[in-house]
TrEMBL record:
NCBIfam families: thiE (TIGR00693). 2-[(2R,5Z)-2-carboxy-4-methylthiazol-5(2H)-ylidene]ethyl phosphate binds at residues 147-149, 179, 199-200. The keyword Iron does not apply. It catalyses: 2-(2-carboxy-4-methylthiazol-5-yl)ethyl phosphate + 4-amino-2-methyl-5-(diphosphooxymethyl)pyrimidine + 2 H(+) = thiamine phosphate + CO2 + diphosphate; 2-[(2R,5Z)-2-carboxy-4-methylthiazol-5(2H)-ylidene]ethyl phosphate + 4-amino-2-methyl-5-(diphosphooxymethyl)pyrimidine + 2 H(+) = thiamine phosphate + CO2 + diphosphate; 4-methyl-5-(2-phosphooxyethyl)-thiazole + 4-amino-2-methyl-5-(diphosphooxymethyl)pyrimidine + H(+) = thiamine phosphate + diphosphate. This is Thiamine-phosphate synthase. Its cofactor is Mg(2+). Its EC number is 2.5.1.3. InterPro entries: Aldolase_TIM, ThiamineP_synth_sf, ThiamineP_synth_TenI, TMP_synthase. Residues 18-202 form the Thiamine phosphate synthase/TenI domain. Belongs to the thiamine-phosphate synthase family. 4-amino-2-methyl-5-(diphosphooxymethyl)pyrimidine binds at residues 47-51, 82, 121, 150. Condenses 4-methyl-5-(beta-hydroxyethyl)thiazole monophosphate (THZ-P) and 2-methyl-4-amino-5-hydroxymethyl pyrimidine pyrophosphate (HMP-PP) to form thiamine monophosphate (TMP).
Amino acid sequence: SARAHWRQPEELSKLLRVYLIMGSNNCLRDPEQVLTDAIAGGITMFQYREKGTGALTGDERFKLASRLREMCRMSGVPFIVNDDVDLALALDADGVHVGQEDELATEVRRRIGEDRILGVSAYNMVEADTAVRFGADYLGVGPLYSTQTKEDAKSASGLAVLKEMREQGIAVPIVGIGGIHAGNAAEVVRAGADGVSVITAITHADNERSAAEALHSAVEAAAAAD
Ligand code: TZP
Ligand code: MG
């Protein structure tokens, strides 16, 4: 299919450069406005993650997800769903992202087929190795820096974990997560990531478009210097 090429590592590496993750409860204003401006600022991938205090459920969640999905489709931005394979399939999402505690990556792969992107969170080398063997197309590694956003977040790992994964031969695309903003994005990429995923740096920005642009410039410059 048309989107199958997005799974290719070279393509995915570029799509992971500025990866916005959000749900309604991360937004200070209308989520559709936030996503519109973030897309205008050049985000390269989007994940719908409706979790934590104040998260939408049921029909409201489905309706918002559907609207954001259509916005991504119109702008050619891959739309990924956090954790929920049923929702991903119902929306014809471009991929699914799961944590270590979620449905096993092998089972998710079986359900989403060969055309959709599978992302898996990994906090350390053992988790990264397992995720790759179970069919992850990319890894989300972190929290690298401390974050207020995830209620059950582990402590910040620092950038050494990225260096270790690359030195130990983890070759799939990696996106850093946790406390990332335009001021530290370049060092995340220099440590071995292909790009950065952010919630607050865009959703809480005074200007979401400028925030996305700044992240984009920082990542591009660091990736080009490689
Ligand atoms: N997983 C690890 S840290 C985190 C998630 C979902 C939250 C990242 O949010 P922020 O606001 O970019 O630190
Ligand atoms: Mg999860």
